Amino acid sequence: MRLMDHIGLGLIAIWLLSPVGGRSSFRQISVGPTSVVEDVVFSHVVPNSNVWTPDIPISKIQTDSLYVAGIMTPEARGYSRDAWGHIKVPRIEYYEGTSTPEDEGWYKTAKFTLDLDSYSSFIGITIGGIDSADFFDYFTTVQVMYFSLMCDPYLGQSRFVFNQSTWIGHVFWNNYTTATAEPPPQDLNPFTFVVKRGEFPFLNCTAKTVYVEVGVTCPTYTTCSASRVRRSRHEHPPTDRTRLGWFLGIGPGSPLSVNMSKPVGSDDYASQKNEPAINLYSRSWIGTPKNYMATAPANASEMSYEKLSIRLSQTLNAYWSTMYCKNSLVRRFNETTLPPDDKRIWSYQEESYQGEPSRETYLFAETWPSTGTKRSNVAVFQAHYGWVVALIVSSVVLITASLIPFYVRTWLSHGPDVLMNVSSLAVRDNPYVALPTTGTYLDAADRSRYLRHLQVRFGEVGGQVGIGKLVIGRADGDVRVLRRGGKYM
Prior knowledge:
This protein has helices spanning 6-17, 57-72, 92-98, 243-247, 266-271, 277-287, 305-325, 359-363, 385-412, 419-423, 444-450, and strands spanning 29-46, 107-108, 127-128, 135-153, 170-173, 191-196, 203-218, 225-231, 366-383, 456-464, 467-474, 487-488. The protein is α+β, with helices and mostly antiparallel strands. It has 3 domains: 1-28 and 384-413, no CATH class; 35-143 and 208-238 and 264-379, no CATH class; 418-488, no CATH class. Residues 1-22 form the signal peptide.
């Protein structure tokens, strides 16, 4: 039909607004990024039997330099990462005293805190595999150990039976043999030493090894932090068995007992002549860590033994990190030192702690694997749900509209199509439609529209041999109705 009705206009509008009618498939689908999670194995540095000892000139220069660099940077004071971006290990004792554990014993740590007591050291742990800007939301859990000191006033009488050094003052080692490394756990005694600073009295310090699991979260590869911590559920030696037991008790020239400078006398210490910077920074950190460059000494009466123990632990752990992390602190990370299998033990605490020396084990730190995840953005086809719904609705409407004529013609039509026959009534001199005397050039469809209010009757007349004739007559005329099953011509 040439004339457009409201239904036809509505169908055309639906078709034009649909994704198909608009001829733009990108209204339904476009290319965009999506986040994909990948399982990955990271590696992190752990102590082993091959550390850089300060009694070797070459390694002493490197360890001292790394220590000074770590303590002098602003990151040392209350940041979650150290000078090289490594994650600082939370001090589990701090969170056990200030917060409540969550599921499975985990303590949630702050992403950024200025509380120095919350960290075990101002030098962090090196983790490999978190080094690509193509990934984000890194997460893994690492096994870490650190030393924890508890210091009380020293009540002994003799002060001349110990060796001396000028690391943070006079340090006197009580355990003069390897006894703490050899006995069975039931006969083990904690490692102890005595420390003397100018304005502090003699302090007797007990060292324990703390083993923790640290959850590491990295929104990007440069913004990592420790997100949670708990005491380790991994197999480890007794906490009273420390590396200091055998490593420091070998003799007066033991490595860490001369770690910061050569042994000097009391007079030289008191006058601080030619004192190395590493000694000065260490003592300043103990007293005033937030202003360690200050010349004024800390007031001993304002500092508790507990606070002093924490500061001593931080300096000890920091220097210990420079000894076992080696070049990995400055991003010279080597993953070839991963263990050959998944068995991970703190081997330096076992009888085999004296490992086979080699160039690789001396230059590179030992690493352990840790499973984790990371995310990346990949390009995929994305569906625009609004346009997909519009396509479905418009398609259903158009398909339904196309099926209506078929349904009407098949199930609702009770007789043949007589439109063309009815249009013949609209000719010249007819009583139904006024036409010019010259006739009309309208086609049958147009003439039928002018007769839309005319009622006619379709019936049977005449016929022969059982075959009738179909005629169109007036609605009130005498025309026989069609016979069911009849034949007509």
